[in-house]
Amino acid sequence: MRDLKRELRHLYGVGILFFYYMKWPIVIGLPVLYFYLGYDRNIVLDILWIYSLILIFKDFYIMYRRYKRGEKIWR
């Protein structure tokens, strides 16, 4: 059980790092691949694109909420 918890924490950390650095390239790059370079549609990449888009909207919402409260936007 202890090993399972440790592995799940590792996967969680990998997911955070992956989407922290890759959400913008996924959101911008996937439409370029589909519409300009003629790649076939892939449901897994579509799900990753939607999830990355949701994360970007969440970041903008949090930034807007902090601005309204008078907090520093950039930390």
Polypeptide structure, described:
It is a single chain. This protein has 75 residues and is mainly alpha-helical. The chain has two helices and no strands. It is flat, with a radius of gyration of 16 Å. The termini are far apart. The model has no long low-confidence stretch (mean pLDDT 90).
The arrangement of helices and strands along the chain is: HH
**Estimated radius of gyration:** 16 Å
State the separation between the terminal residues, measured CA to CA: 37 Å
Would you tell me the overall average pLDDT?
A: 90
Structural class: mainly alpha
Query: How many strand units?
Result: 0
Which oligomerization state do the chains in this entry correspond to?
single chain
Shape: flat
Beta-strand residue percentage:
under 5%
Characterize the biggest β-sheet. Answer: none
Poorly predicted residue ranges: none
Alpha plus pi helix count = 2
Helicity range? over 70%
List the helices and strands and how they pair.
Layout: H1 2-36, H2 43-69
Helix pairs in contact: 1-2
Q: Which labels suit this protein?
A:
single chain; 75 residues; mainly alpha; 2 helices; 0% strand
Quick overview:
With 75 residues, the protein is an all-alpha fold. It has helices at 2-36, 43-69.
